[in-house]
Each structure stands twice: as structure tokens, then as C-alpha cells.
Design brief:
40% of the residues lie in helices and 18% in strands. With 171 residues, the protein is of the alpha/beta class.
């Protein structure tokens, strides 16, 4: 019985597509598209097929991009390491230190409270935020937290402090 219904659907869908008009320029937002065309010569209609990737846009920032963002002050850079790590290993100039365990509450503070507690400007939900840590693991977690709180333009530096210091020494 179920097999019979399945065969009916597979026979019906191609006929439906063959006979139905297709609206041009219909698109779905999000994802990358590739377009191919099939021309139905029987009825002279054009069927536009689009395939979409479920892969989200990249959230990774390279060393060069991070340097540019810091120079242009076009993002709030947040280092999610613990304060002792910054003292022991060093820090990226211009980054605000908000330990990973405090990111959730910090991004929900009043801007004045944020400034008092962390010594930097609190990002707005539409600001570009770049998270960094030692090696890119915690910064990815912070990115996910900020996204869940409604922040729109959130990225992370996967190389973290380890990549930063290596590249800075090789200049």
C-alpha cells in the first residue's frame, strides 16, 4: 500500500513540474546558490533550479584581518582567556578581556557596567565582535554564546594568542 502511494507521487511530481509555470527570480536567502536551467521544449517554459549549501558563511578571521580590524577599530575584540593567562603569556593590544565563564552575563550588562568591570566598550548587537583566546577553542564557544544572545556579526580568531605571538615575532 505504501509502495503504491510512493509510485503515485513519483509519477505525479514530474507531471506537476512539467505543467506548472515557474516564477523567475525566486530565491531563498542565506546559503550560497548555484543556478542551472532546464528548458522544457514541450511547452516552451523554462524551469530554474537552484541548489543551496547549508554551510554558513565563515566566522573565522585571519591574522591579517584581525590586524586590520584592530587598526581601523571596526570591531570589538574580546579575549576570553583568564586574567592570569594574559599576565603570564601576554595579550593582543586593543582587546578587551572578558573570561569565557563571564561572556554570557557580560554581554547582557548595561554598557556602563561593562565598561567599569572590563575596561572597554560593550559591543552593541549590531557591532562586529571578534573573539580570541589561546588557541581558538574557547573563542569559538564565546562566538556561539554571543550568537545565541542575538549578536549578529560575530567572528573568532582560530589561531588565538599562539598564532598571534608567532606572527608578531616573525615580522
Amino acid at each position: 500500500m505504501a509502495l503504491r502511494k510512493c509510485w503515485r507521487i513519483t509519477a505525479f511530481v514530474p507531471r506537476l513540474l512539467w505543467k506548472s509555470p515557474v516564477q523567475p527570480e525566486v530565491s531563498v536567502t542565506g546559503g550560497r546558490s548555484s543556478v542551472s536551467y532546464y528548458v522544457n521544449t514541450h511547452q516552451g517554459t523554462e524551469l530554474q533550479l537552484r541548489s543551496f549549501s547549508s554551510e554558513p558563511p565563515s566566522t573565522d578571521v585571519t591574522y591579517e584581518q584581525l590586524k586590520q580590524v584592530l587598526a581601523d577599530r571596526k570591531a570589538v575584540v574580546i579575549d576570553v582567556r583568564e586574567p592570569w593567562e594574559l599576565r603570564e603569556y601576554g595579550f593582543i593590544p586593543g582587546a578587551v578581556n572578558v573570561p569565557l565563564g563571564q561572556v554570557n552575563t557580560a554581554l547582557q550588562l548595561d554598557p556602563e557596567e561593562f565598561r567599569e568591570k572590563f575596561g572597554g566598550e560593550m559591543p552593541r548587537q549590531t557591532d562586529n565582535i571578534v573573539f580570541t583566546c589561546l588557541a581558538g577553542i574557547r573563542s569559538k564557544t564565546a562566538l556561539d554564546t554571543a550568537t545565541s544572545l542575538g549578536y549578529k556579526v560575530v567572528q573568532h580568531y582560530p589561531g588565538g594568542w599562539q598564532d598571534w605571538v608567532k606572527r608578531e615575532q616573525n615580522k
